[in-house]
Design a protein that fits this description.
By secondary structure, the protein is of the alpha/beta class. The protein has twelve helices and 19 strands. The strands form four sheets. Strands 5-4-13-14-15-12-17-16 form an eight-stranded mixed beta sheet. Strands 7-2-1-11-19-18 form a six-stranded mixed beta sheet, sandwiched between helices. Strands 8-9-10 form a three-stranded antiparallel beta sheet. Helix 1 packs parallel to helix 9, helix 2 packs across helix 9 and helix 9 packs antiparallel against helix 10. The two termini are about 25 Å apart. It binds flavin-adenine dinucleotide. The site of flavin-adenine dinucleotide (FAD) has 34 residues, from helix 1, strand 3, strand 8, strand 12 and helix 9.
């Protein structure tokens, strides 16, 4: 039922961009994904998937493929970084699934992206191109034009693409957002994440657990969970630092990490000591906004609403965006400006809530002194049902 001769151009082939291509194809819309990297790839790390994104996977017909590769943890567990005792435990088994209808899962990012990519490759409505860095955009009313650079250092002019419309799914440092909104760089949060993946055989047996677990400490926390059928353990160590202005995906300094985690329990130190090479992220987000679209250009995923990772939802929100956008396009019979406006209207408060709640969760995880004691007391007294209800706005999905 496609009603456009030109494809919809999608800038960025990450989780959001590929999910958008799939969701559009399902509604009969042709798209063409332009990715700057030389291949479609994700970083070697885990990602958590809430039940709200499984609802989307169901619609996209991906649930079986994702489930084959995912690990389903038994609990979400918060431990105290000083005592190593459990502070809160949210069961993710039968009761959780009955409540939310879908599971909570952990997966290697490469596996998730490959499921999306394979599904895209099977669709005759989706074009995929790598080594295409979008540098300029023009909205001509009836169509859009996009200029690209190519080559190892993007030194050469690439093709100019003509599309019916443009979706900016180009992440935190979005070029499309800069063109659309001009609101400068993302906010540097002062929080740094070091990530690594460890063969689980290197994790001392007593620390292995079938859970998504983390130690929460003063201005620090350390997450660990199993992926790839428990063969690998994903680690994310987060701490506050104002040493870094900005940056993305560079190598971390183990000496700094050990200094920041000097006050934590021995168990957490033991895990940290197992890793020699960490990748580092300077964590950024933005204030929520509600002007992600103009004419035939619209933003999606981190480009529209980048959030801190404390809610483990940035990727899930990008997939929700994708389905909502495709739905609105179908409803308006392919009226781009109108469907982009209604998509934005449907999404901005939910994603704003995720952005704001993620910051708040960061404060809770990193509490110190009396606030830490208060957190531990309040969370320890919470029933699983109360914990589920506190997440209902998010996990019930859209
Ligand atoms: C430490 C950490 C842990 C996280 N944990 C979770 C979690 O557990 N669960 C969860 O749901 N989310 C999590 N997130 C968030 C999640 O990773 C992001 O929200 C998600 O990857 C956003 O997807 P996206 O497709 O919008 O953007 P991206 O994944 O950033 O993809 C953007 C793509 O666009 C390409 N691109 C950029 N500019 C251009 C250009 N000019 N031309 C062409 N291509 C371009 C990039 O190369 C990239 O492939 C976490 C994030 C961090 C940092």
């Amino acid at each position: 039922m496609t009603n456009v001769d030109r494809p919809i151009l999608i800038v960025g082939g990450g989780i959001g961009g590929l999910a958008a291509a799939l969701a559009l194809a399902q509604k009969g819309f042709r798209s063409h994904v332009l990715e700057q990297a030389s291949e479609f790839k994700e970083i070697g790390a885990g990602i958590q998937l809430g039940p709200n994104v499984f609802k989307m996977f169901d619609i996209l017909g991906m649930t079986a493929a994702v489930s084959r590769l995912a690990t389903f943890p038994e609990n979400l567990v918060m431990m105290d970084c000083i005592t190593s005792e459990d502070v809160a435990r949210i069961p993710l088994g039968k009761e959780f699934r009955e409540r939310f209808r879908y599971p909570y899962a952990l997966i290697h990012r490469v596996d998730l992206l490959n499921v999306l990519l394979e599904a895209c490759r099977k669709s005759s409505l989706i074009g995929l191109e790598t080594s295409r860095k979008v540098t300029d955009i023009a909205d001509h009313g009836g169509h859009v034009l996009v200029s690209t650079k190519t080559g190892p250092a993007f030194e050469s002019d690439g093709p100019v693409y003509e599309g019916a419309a443009l979706i900016g799914a180009d992440g935190l440092w979005s070029t499309v957002r800069e063109w659309l909104i001009h609101d400068g760089k993302p906010r540097v949060s002062g929080h740094i994440a070091y990530r690594a993946v460890l063969p689980t055989e290197h994790v001392p047996e007593r620390l292995r657990r079938p859970d998504m677990a983390f130690w929460a400490g003063e201005k620090t926390h350390l997450v660990y969970y199993p992926i790839r059928s428990g063969m690998l353990t994903n680690l994310v160590a987060v701490f506050h630092s104002n040493r870094y202005e900005e940056g993305w995906d560079s190598y971390g300094d183990p000496a700094e990490l050990h200094e920041r985690f000097a006050g934590v329990c021995q168990d957490a130190k033991t895990l940290l000591s197992k890793i020699e090479t960490w990748r580092m992220w300077v964590l950024c987000d933005r204030e929520p906004i509600k002007n992600w679209t103009r004419g035939r250009v619209v933003l999606l995923g981190d480009a529209a609403h980048p959030m801190l990772q404390y809610l483990a939802q940035g990727g899930c929100m990008a997939v929700e965006d994708a389905l909502c956008l495709a739905d609105q396009l179908e409803k308006t019979g392919g009226d781009f400006p109108q469907s982009f406006q209604s998509y934005q209207q449907l999404r901005y408060l939910r994603t704003a809530r995720a952005q704001v709640t993620a910051r708040y969760y960061g404060d809770v995880y990193h509490a110190a002194g009396v606030v830490r004691e208060l957190r531990n007391q309040l969370l320890a007294g919470r029933s699983p049902q109360a914990a589920y209800e506190s997440m209902a706005w998010l996990y019930d999905g859209v």
